[in-house]
Write a structure and sequence with these properties.
The protein is α+β, with helices and mostly antiparallel strands and 97 residues long. The protein has one domain. The protein is built from 2 helices and 4 strands; from the N terminus they run ααββββ. The longest helix is centred in the first third of the chain and has 14 residues. It starts with a helix and ends with a strand.
Length: 97
């Protein structure tokens, strides 16, 4: 599989799980988040010394119910398999404001 196909599969997987990721963010932010905007162009498979296995990263911007930007995150989505994801094992994020 080429890199473009892998990236398209990763984006489609995250889009299919958008509601689950949004719920995670809203729970973390004590429900002050009314809308989450995903920047699908930022989706990338990454690895770091912090996490044992590769994960998918995506940038998101959060807005309150008055449409005011309140936070930006780089979400780390840990799927069962980065190249052929079928399930999310863990979600966390880093505040980038």
């Amino acid at each position: 599989m080429n890199e473009k196909e892998s990236h398209e599969r990763q984006v489609a997987f995250l889009q299919a799980h958008e509601a689950q990721i949004t719920r995670f963010i809203q729970t973390k932010e004590a429900s002050t988040v009314a809308k989450v905007e995903y920047n699908w162009r930022t989706v990338a498979a990454q690895s770091s010394m912090v996490y044992e296995y590769p994960y998918l990263a995506v940038d998101v911007t959060c807005y309150n119910n008055k449409h005011k930007q309140i936070d930006c995150y780089r979400m780390s989505i840990h799927p069962d398999n980065v190249d052929h994801p079928t399930a999310i094992l863990n979600i966390d994020g880093i505040d980038v404001d």
